[in-house]
Amino acid sequence: MSDPVKRALEQIAGPSVKSATPEGNGQPSNRLLAQPLILEAGSRGAARKLATQGFTRCHRFSVVPSRHAARWLLPLGSSAVTKQSLDICAVYSPRARAMKDFLSAFMKLSWLGWAQSGVALASKGPLPLEVLVAEVTGETAPAFALSLGSPDRFRKVTAQVMRPTGEILGYIKLPLTEGATERVRHEAARLASLWGFADLRRHIPRVLHAGEWGDSYILFQSSGPAGSGPTEFGRAHEEFLLALRSAHQVEKPGSVLVEEAARSWRQLQPLLNSEWTELGEKALERARQALTGRKVSCGISHGDFAPWNTRMEDGRLFVYDWESAAWEAPLEWDRIHFHVQVSSLLGRTNGWVGHFERTPKEKAVFLLYLLNSLRPILKEGAALKYERAKFRKQLLAAVLR
To answer: Domain range for residue 275?
Structure first.
């Protein structure tokens, strides 16, 4: 069993979980029978054999797209739950969309033969996570669809929690690393603060539960609309950003922002080559010249405002994943980030760059965003970091010309 799959199921099961490989008859060894079990056996037959040993509760999953490239664990057993579980597969690239459409088509035919990569989580009683869900929502038989997250130092499991009918009750975040734990704590605190602004509540999740979870931390938040967020920046995005601006706004000296960016940038220099260093220093000097003696409008920033962190319903934008939220960042940074992410990860360019460099002040804020956005990319250590950093380098050089 791949390590990410095992670790995800261990987080769902709780600290007492054990892994086991079934014997030839599909049953685990006797010494493990008192523990919740993770088994590489997703069939109903295996579940029935476990039930004879007292394991009357069993969550069966298909590993998608495969065990060697696991991204999601989708629950099996109930067609309603299995179909609804695809909601956790927020995909935007053509290849990912095609895969999701393929799975959806077969589910509509009630054909589950595609689930050849099966795992199961069996227990003799409610798992700790099931107890928590029951206490918070009243649902005693929840189903879970799991997203395994990106393979970096901030990896976490996100569980979509559902009733047996498929109704989504909310989402649970379970960190797999120390860095992810701090981010989830930060998100819980930010969401609790933002819930104090009535105009924002229609746009953000509500914290249903947050607290310690073994040696880690857990965040259970409410769900939002089912519709995917658009990749084109439009009126709904403007309305959301206006609500953020209305909640909290300050004017910060431009020189302060430049110095903050300079400190952060110089911490990165050991990781960068001479070309990057030269570009960064040039950008800081250009920003310093444009912003000295001027104020910049700052306020609440989502920090990772992008289509895959949004949902849409009846023109209302709903925004998830507040792990990178900041209280007093330049207001334009969320708007810039949206366009940069769509362009760099989806390959869509609509001539948006010119909108953010119409004046020396706007260009300076743009330059500071590009420098600031490099830091989390390098900290993540993600496989895509090279391409994402390369795109920002090209933008930085273009804006400085």
So the answer is: 235-400
